[in-house]
Amino acid sequence: MKAVLFERFGELPRIADLPAPSPAPDGVVIEVKATGLCRSDWHGWMGHDSGIELPHVPGHEFAGVVEAVGRDVRNFKVGDRVTAPFIGACGGCSECHSGNQQVCENQFQPGFTQWGSFAQYVGFGKADLNLVPLPEDISFEEAASLGCRFATSFRAVVDQGELRAGQWLAVHGCGGVGLSAIMIAKAIGARIVAVDIDEATLKLAHGLGAHYTIDARSEPDTAAAIKDLTGGGAAVSIDALGHPATCVNSVRCLRRRGKHIQVGLLLGDDAAPKIPMDIVVAHELELLGSHGMQAHRYDAMLSLVQDGGIELNQLIGNRVDLAEGAKALSEMDRFEGVGATLITRFE
Ligand SMILES: [Zn+2]
Ligand SMILES: [Zn+2]
């Protein structure tokens, strides 16, 4: 099979001809029909993720068709249209038993702990627990664009934030995660204020449902501006970027008993931002993380997409082939378009 392969971190990946995977007894092999490029793929390629062994095939946001099933798989058969959360769960640990597969203690991740989906075929284990059947009216491209962005945003806004109609959501950073959060919040009937430093992005945020937008380049105190616009602060606020400044602004813009959700990754020197714990105590704020989503919550997410009029196509940017995908991966720190780049051609 053809795949994007890198043998050294930070070195331009090449297209390699590799043996196709065969299914584990409890796993499947999926013919990849669409797979999204994500900033965490870039971090992995740069060597920021210690779990990757070389040589490596990246890719974790995929949808496709089951090509082969292991002997113990009960719920899926060859030809099924499927997608999967980017975290594969073990099914045996206490987090899995409590339904929190997104923080499984023995998790595996295609594209990180094993070869991923920038390839014609990808293997995926514990299929009965981790695979999600795809409704006919959701395309492979739309499903791949759910990726980690939209699914993590859904968990952040709906499950962690418990955002309700009429409440204010603040979104700090309007890349894929932030725009997904805006679409989800609009479908719920919440009110939204969006912050970014790019005019075109803010325009898009407004078009997708943000009631107010703030350009952080011209507004020196975004937290104060949000408190002003929302009459006291946001009920839920998301740092969708992952930067010490947006993280602190997100905490500071909350109303009393509000919830900050950290979705953007804070890595390396940025890993320990100075959180204003004085107001966390005085205002009884909640600080929560959101890291992926369980397979069993895809039902609720896809229902909101279908009933809430969410158009996933708006999250799709360029459609490319494997070679173009390899190049785009290496350039992700420089060009991160608003829509996700999808690899849709694998020949
Ligand atoms: Zn587990
Ligand atoms: Zn991702």
How does this structure look, described?
With 347 residues, the chain is an alpha/beta fold. The protein has two domains: 2-134 and 311-345, Quinone Oxidoreductase, Chain A, domain 1 (Alpha-Beta Complex), CATH 3.90.180.10; 152-289, Rossmann fold. Helices cover 29% and strands 23% of the residues. The protein has eleven helices and 15 strands. Strands 3, 4, 5, 6, 7, 14 and 15 form a seven-stranded mixed beta sheet that branches. A six-stranded parallel beta sheet has the order 10-9-8-11-12-13, with helices on both faces. The chain has a two-stranded antiparallel sheet with strand order 1-2. It is globular. The N and C termini lie close together (9 Å). The site of one zinc ion has 7 residues, from α4.
Key phrases:
347 residues, alpha/beta, Quinone Oxidoreductase, Chain A, domain 1, Rossmann fold, 2 domains, 6-stranded parallel β-sheet, 15 strands, 23% strand, binds zinc ion
CATH architecture field of the largest domain? Alpha-Beta Complex
Number of helices: 11
- Integer average pLDDT: 95
The count of DSSP E runs of length 2 or more, i.e. the number of strands, is: 15
Report the helical percentage.
25-40%
In terms of structural class, how would the helical and strand content be classed? alpha/beta
Radius of gyration, CA atoms, in whole angstroms: 20 Å
**Biggest β-sheet, characterized?**
7 strands, mixed
The CATH homologous superfamily of the largest domain = Medium-chain alcohol dehydrogenases, catalytic domain
- Hetero groups bound? zinc ion
Could you tell me the CATH topology label of the largest domain. Answer: Quinone Oxidoreductase, Chain A, domain 1
The unreliable regions are none
Shape: globular
Strand content: 15-25%
